[in-house]
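My hope is that you will study the record closing this message with an eye to the fold:
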Amino acid sequence: TPTVEASVDSLYLYSVRASDADGDTLVYTVISGPQDMRINPLNGLVAWLPSREDMGAHEIVVGAYDGQLNDTQRFLLTVRTQSFPPKIAAIKGLALDADGSAVLELAALSSDADHSFGELVWSIEKTAGDPVDIRYNAGDTRALFSTSSTFLQAQVRLRVSDPDGNSSERLLRLARRESSDFNGDASVDLS
């Protein structure tokens, strides 16, 4: 069964398998497909390096011939761009102001090689510690945190996903600036 997806600028390989009842030597050919797709005529290895211009669907027909009879295989091969996961920058823990609030600039934290910030989906949730109010709406470029006067610390999970289903996560520690045990170096990359 052929692999039916290929990525731009990544070598596509598929080994055609055929047998001959008489044991005759088979010769393999690409009957139809992209002009620069090649096949080894002796072992049936198909090789192709698709470019951006090749994105989309391609009907591929390969054949095996024993000198008298031939057989073909048809399949649809779809070329897509390579998908890269979004990244969350390494950040130190987030120190809350004296009033127990902080702003986290999400646009400055994220990067994605194949998607704009507006295409990314963020989720932010408290995973441990004292209660914290997190205000973030989809599409916002920043998240707001507020706490009570008795707040000491909390852990928050930041997750960013792109339309291709790739994602990255990072744990972030929140603490008051005056917290004596808060060294600021408190994020963990979960990707």
About this structure: Confidence is low (pLDDT under 50) at residues 181-191. DSSP finds one helix and 17 strands in the chain. The first strand starts at residue 5 and ends at 7.
